[in-house]
Fold this sequence. Notes:
Blueprint: E1 6-15, E2 18-28, E3 33-37, H1 44-51, E4 59-64, H2 69-72, E5 76-79, H3 93-98, H4 113-125, H5 141-153, E6 159-163, H6 171-184, E7 189-193, H7 197-200, E8 206-211, E9 213-218, H8 224-231
Parallel strand pairs: 3-7, 3-8, 5-6, 6-7
Antiparallel strand pairs: 1-2, 1-4, 8-9
Helix pairs in contact: 4-5
Amino acid sequence: MTPHPIQIENLDFSYGRISVLEQASLSVADKEFVCMVGPNGGGKTTLLKLLLGLLEPQAGTVSIFGKNPTAGRKWIGYLPQHANLDAKFPVTALDVVLMGRLGKTHRVGPYTRTDQSMARDMLDRVGLNKLEKRPLATLSGGQRQRVLIARALVCEPRLLLLDEPTASLDDYVERELYDLLLELNKELTVVVVTHDIGFVSSYVDKVVCVNRQVRIHPTSEINENIIHDMYGEHVHMVRHDQEHGHG
Length: 247
């Protein structure tokens, strides 16, 4: 039996005396499209750091494709919430994507032909092949996010983790980005952290609610009562008027 991309069992984590995650368990199967939601401070970012091996649990286990997170990290493509890229820094779209090959290239010096070829392939994959020489500063917000997704893909991941990938993007660009993720999901497991639960519910297989504890709901179960319980406040489920099937 092939190990799941993500397997978490009875995980506890705290910063000092402040408990962030308690008895958290989660299983994400191959090629699932999962949305992670929860209030600020509820533990979503901490959970991502545990998956990436940047933090270690005080109790319980975390595995990535059956390996510990440090060993499994090579199979993860990660898009952080705030990418440390100064838009004014003189780099092109292709330069940014090539950064994703740094962990794969085991030699000092310039990028190999393989690196260059894969970077161009990934830009093509996200629909930006004609913009490879464009400076990052001249790209729109949506185009920059696509470049960063291409950077995450060029490391040849089997699992894609994205932290608030559509923050500050308008509805049209957000829909385009999720359409791209849905396409990528045919080959990869995709986990997206977001606040826009109403929007993504038409794309994902299940919703993982993180608020110290982890609760998993099939998308069909998600309603305003569940979201209210999670956030402790009223959250309006905006549907953005769209119909998408996931199959």
